[in-house]
Amino acid sequence: MKRYFIIASLICIGAGAIFGFTRFVVAEKEFVGPPAKVYEESVDINQAHCLATNIYHEARGESYAGKVAVANVTMNRVLSPKFPNTICDVVYQSHTRENWKGEEVPKRNKCQFSWYCDGKSDDIVLVTAKGKVIKERMLAWEMSQLVANQSVRGNLIDITDGSTHYFNSELADPYWASAYKQVVQIDSHSFLKED
To answer: Distance between CA atoms of 105 and 151, rounded to whole angstroms?
Structure first.
């Protein structure tokens, strides 16, 4: 039943994009936003994939709103002169070092998004070794792709009010957070922007 509810919610989002309004349903609550922008040009699938990957790794266990907020921050960074100007460059921005093969690799724990250089695999594993689908991960990946595609098309409201930073307040207390104004707490993430 839950999967059908999610699919029905996704259909509502798509219909909203087509008919000029943003509408989404989360936990049986309806949210209606201002008219959505619908762009005619095609989406760069590489940029959309980078965004979906970032959403998945940063907000896999978060709600729809949590995933949208991560997408918002990524896109706000793309628009900021303080960050690179493509989604993939923002997602993979890091301090690098030369490894033993002479290749530039990210320094551990020196990336804009922690999943990229935390020393763990960045693979998106959706099935077990025996081929059984890991339902929670599959649903999280599907939702991450949906959010990324809507974000790249400009069809999402910025629920972070221009935030360019966030952190998991359950796991971290970063030294840099005091230099920013907290805008909103969504799920386990605190979203911040410059004063």
So the answer is: 28
Question: 72 and 6 share a domain?
Answer: no
**Structural domain count, the chain:** 2
In angstroms, the CA 154 to CA 132 distance is: 35
| C-alpha dist (Å) from residue 66 to 63, 93, 108, 121, 166 | 5, 22, 25, 23, 11
**Residue carrying structure tokens 């590489």:** 46
**This prediction's pTM:** 0.75
Q: Which residues contact 102 (CB under 8 A, 6 or more apart)?
A: none
Residue with tokens 């594993």: 125
For residue 151 the two structure tokens come to 């974000």
Q: Do both 114 and 67 map to the same domain?
A: yes
Pairwise CA distance, residues 86 & 88, whole Å: 6
Over residues 19-62, the pLDDT tens digits come to 344 444 444 444 444 454 554 457 789 999 999 999 999 999 99
Do 23 and 113 fall into the same domain? no
Q: In the numeric block, which tokens belong to residue 189?
A: 């993430």
Does residue 116 contact residue 56 with C-beta atoms inside 8 Å?
no
Maximum pairwise Cα distance, the chain: 54
Quick one: which of 34, 29, 35 has its CA closest to 9? 29
Judged by average pLDDT, the poorest of 7-11, 24-28, 77-81 is 7-11
Say how far apart CA 163 and CA 167 lie, in whole Å: 11
